[in-house]
Specification:
The chain contains 15 helices and 34 strands. It is an alpha/beta fold. It is 31% helix and 28% strand.
Amino acid sequence: MKQKLLVLGGGFGGLYAARELRKRFGDSADIQLISEENYFVFQPLLPEVAAGAITEMHAVTSLRELLKKVRLRKATIHSVDFARKVVTVFQGVQRRPTEIAYDHLVVAMGSRIDLSRVPGLEEHALKMKTLEDARRLRAHIIERLEHADVTQLPEVKREALTFVVVGAGFSGIETIGEVKELIDRSLKYYPNIDPSEVRVIAVEFAPRALNELPESLAAYAVRQLKKRGVELMFNTGVASVTGRRLVTSTGETIPTRTIIATIGNAPSPVVLDMGLELTQGRVAVDRFMRAKGHDNVWSLGDCALIPMKENATERNDFAPPTAQFAVREAAQLASNIAATVKGKALKPFQYKSRGALASLGARRGVAEVFGVKLSGYVAWLLWRAYYLSFMPGFDTKLRVFMNWMLDGLRPRSVVALQVPNAQAARYVHYAAGDPVFERGNRSDGFYTVVSGQFEVSYYDEGQGKDITHEVGPGGHFGERMIMGESTRYGTVKAVTDGVVLVLGREEFTKLSSTFDALGSYLEDHLSRVYHVDWHAKKVTEVESSLPKAS
């Protein structure tokens, strides 16, 4: 019988794990990879996408192209049942739950950005994690330049031309370097903006930048950025943020309408819900990359804390969450799964970094390769050559190389293509007989009937029987998700042609928690219809639960 090998996540760890498993097992195993997107994002290039050095489509590659003979399932992971060895996903338009069995499970879910510890940062900061983040950042910067060029209000112009990057690690330094280059190369199109009016600031809690590199290279990077007009604040945290200012931990107020956060890595909610043992917010694994307490669950990449020596305790005792290490982890993990299947001995993960590189923008970089320190133009060229070689797929390499060549010859475009936001509230039309959702589907929103009749069916545990009733204009359904339920409790279908207004899950939860009249109504409705005792969170409780500035 073929082994069922299931990989969760389509980032560096997941992609390379699936490829290595295919190399090891060939056709003797069924290998699946589950990802919410059908493309792989080369994250080191996101700052260049944000700066317009390369187009967004050239920083991604089709997972189906990269994973030949690996089944790709575009779906949202809901839960994992380790006892039954099944993963439940939501897939398709109706977001129906589907169970996928496995013999060995590889968790490569990466990490997410969590900025909730700083008041206002989650709501007002731009992030640098996904392709959409990079596209949104570029459009935002161009929009600020457009606004600054026409405004007659000095304070508005000052805020529009102040750009703050939070974090001075690799991502922060590369982002601030590219942002500064985009602004500098765009100013010729904005005659009413003087270069002296632009402020680009990096705020870093640590005493220095680029902790992963030798101090001499970090100092070079700081000098180069300062020469280009970048301000760097070390030993400085962020106390609070609004739409028009950032307050530092030292009490300084920076008027700004652009805050870019490159900090705040946290485990994926799906990983948290799995119940795996976590250490420092990452999946605790042994030196073979097996999740502790499980013989057939493995983890790698950003979401795993992988020890590289016995009794590891210090930061350098564990594999860093970088692409370079994820690729090597994938090869060893695949080898260990193959050894497990064959009953052979496993090998611990061991790897020594070949070095680290960072681009500073403006054709400058820093690098340490095999102990050799490089800086300036040579390091920048090496950075580009290294990442070009690292990119999966020849077509991707070619497209990025051509983008770089053209960027060196042509001016940057200042076309601001806005990234449309998903509608929080939308109208949906149904024909008679159409299903709206079925019991067990993923809860995606709260439905209010605008016109037509809809049949709602659910099992009433109190009465021990199925209940069916119709809902007409002014009525609603889908409200049980306010209780935290992630799947649908009942089934709804259109009896006649009709229209409903759908309010997104997150927006509905926020509204019902802060709008007392709606919260009180839902309390009564859930008690009367479903015999459920639920109490709305009042505005004062919501305020007290928000993080406060120190």
